[in-house]
Protein 1
Amino acid sequence: MDFSRIELDAFLDDQVRPFMDEHLPGDVVDRERREGNGFVPEYQRALAARGWLEPWLAEADDGSALDPVRAAIVRAEETDRVGPLFPVVGSHSLVMSVVKQFASDALRTEIATGVHRGEIQTCLGYTEPDCGSDAAAIRTRAVRDGDEWLLTGQKMFSTGAHLCQYAMITARTNPEVAKHQGITMFLVPLDHPGVEVQGIGTLGGERTNFIYFDETRLADIYRLGPVDQGWPIASGALAAEHGMDESHGAIPDHGASEGDLVRALEAVTGWLGVFGRALDAAVDWAQHTTTPEGSRVIDDPAVRLRLARVALDCAVAQITPNPYRRVIASDLLIRDTAELLDMTGVAGVLASGEDGAAAGGTLEWAHRFAQGTSIYGGTTDIQRNLIAEHFLGLPRHRGALRR
């Protein structure tokens, strides 16, 4: 296939941008920023109708899927418009990779059509109130009852659960063995009796959720993988999310030129897009704001130096490979959004919609959002430990040795 610059530019200008103008206009993005749901269901259905959702289940793959470069172009343009507002899309991708490999034929049949049409969305259910980074210390129980399971417990930080149809959860099925054993994975329908979803507000404006299970009766077809052997499945999915697999989080090799282009496009997707959004907003503010003396803020050498440093950090975050990128990007984003707020002064801390808000409130929002990046998918401190142990060959930390 010819991946010429002209062909890809035409795909972006003639297809992707008009599609998003129609299905992802500014008012939809503004609504999502206010509500913080984690995805927009009608937009996902529109992507599916266009054939731009990835065919996560083999039986749903009719050969119409986008090639890797075009799929990355769609994601990059989406990020340019919405920033990090769609984390559930990434969670859904992770869940579907597990479903594709470990789900029963009956479960795959149940959800395949809905997934392919963008009508079924899934979320994660690993974290519990008493276990976050230590994902194996779960207390949610699943007790066998004939061909069914009785599920009791609670999960938290399940972003998107209030709009999703299924949650992939870990549950303890054998309390008599070591904590990394006796865990089983399930894909739980969230409309089942005994399931309750309650919202949690966050500093960054996102809505996440508690999920409560009160003796929820679950057929065995919803089990993912063997009984009591869910930890390798869960940890493998987490490793992929953290860029900790043997490929260091790299995409599959589609060929040198194509792979390089996809990597470059992927580098600005997800919450990394906040960096560029905040920098662009700050530069625009400096160009169009005047000092009491009448000069433009951008003409101050100290301001240009600050912006240049942030621009350099943004570039560093984008080119840092996995699994190191998440740590570097989070640290720099937290530091630099604070730097930009300091540069804009009092107007910088005014939220969107308030009179006089610098950059329309973008910098205030970016700074609030940045704080959460240090805990998404496990804390950056835990990520540092994993990097040290698995990639730098350093000894395991003391807590791990005590276990």
Protein 2
Amino acid sequence: MKSLMLFVAMATAVPAVAGVSVTAPANNSKVASSIQYVATASTTCAHGVSAMGIYTAPGVLAYTVGGAALNTELTLSPGTYDTVVQEWDNCGGATKTPITITVGGGPVQVSAPANGSTVTSPVQFVASATTSCPAGVAAMGIYTAPGVLAYKLNGAALNTAITLSGGTYQTVVEEWDNCGGAGTMPITITVGSGGHSGQFAHLDQQSGWTGYALLPPSYNICNSCAPSGPQLTWAMTQGVTSPALSGDSARMDLGGQTDYSDALWNNHLIGDFSSQGLPDTNRSIVPNVHNLTYDVYFYATDLSVSQALEFDINQFVNGQSFIWGHECRIAGGNEWDIWDNQGQKWHPTGVACNPVNNAWNHLVIQVQRTSDNQLLFQSISLNGQTETLNYSESPTSTTWYGITINYQQDGNYEQQPYSIWLDNLTFTYS
């Protein structure tokens, strides 16, 4: 805090303009008894911000900290509080932001964002959960649309930022307890303009995946094939707890009787048939997207039986098809290939691909649709080793519209069955 000498010295000065920005809790929100306060302050005072504090009632200063930022947790009894977050500057000025909160009142308490609020992306979600289950809360998650689980973690509290495109979202924060119960809190938000960038997190646990069989020699989609075989068998099992990094992984299975057969899974993210609630009917998102990143962890117990693993990013816009195909040949020679759009064939890169058995392999693929509408294969990073490609080529024509991703497993010369586990599959676009 300031000394009395400073207050006297500045008593006749014109107060400097300042402001307090509170990220959490949101005004008029319902929260748990443990409330996370996150705030920053600014001032035109040449000597800066001296301190910040939280009043839980008039004259009740519950917390102070030196500097222009605070991030702390307060514990309050059930009830409604007209709290105030205040800053004091070194010129004798002070500014405050009132935050009304209601403590208690449900299994899920969301501190931020406020229901019905207009926010900017990325959106900060701060929430906690309670339960009558003696074994406690197992996990919490955030749905950004019905069936679209954008984020999930173990435990009874979350604090994360989610990137969303412009628009109105009926989000839901949910808790799952260890007795089989669950509780939810719906939060409607409107994300401001500038929504030409975004991120889809934990896609391996979301809906929208469709599996297909690709049989030699044409490798076209087999419309008569069924997941149960016999030519090719395939399956995607979500919610697998072991092995898993996040608490839930997706096991991708391949088998069957036809040698060198492949299983392809596809998900329509934006545009036609969007699984993420982003049909982009006014075509304001997809044409403005140029940078795309495919980020995933994968696990295997015997990679030697895999002919190849494929990870694709696809953009269809203005009548042009951009297919950034990436194939890690394993039994096929431990090398990365990329897809030749014009030649409709694989192009060797000379970059080695050696994923590890019985470990989580981290893959990050970055690509770009250039300003002159060329495909640019930028880089591949596997387990921290980044290889720059900077390979460019031309698109082909299409009547499709949107952005999709693929994941594919290829069978070997004996079509030996094998499984790959996917976790933390994140797709980012801008």
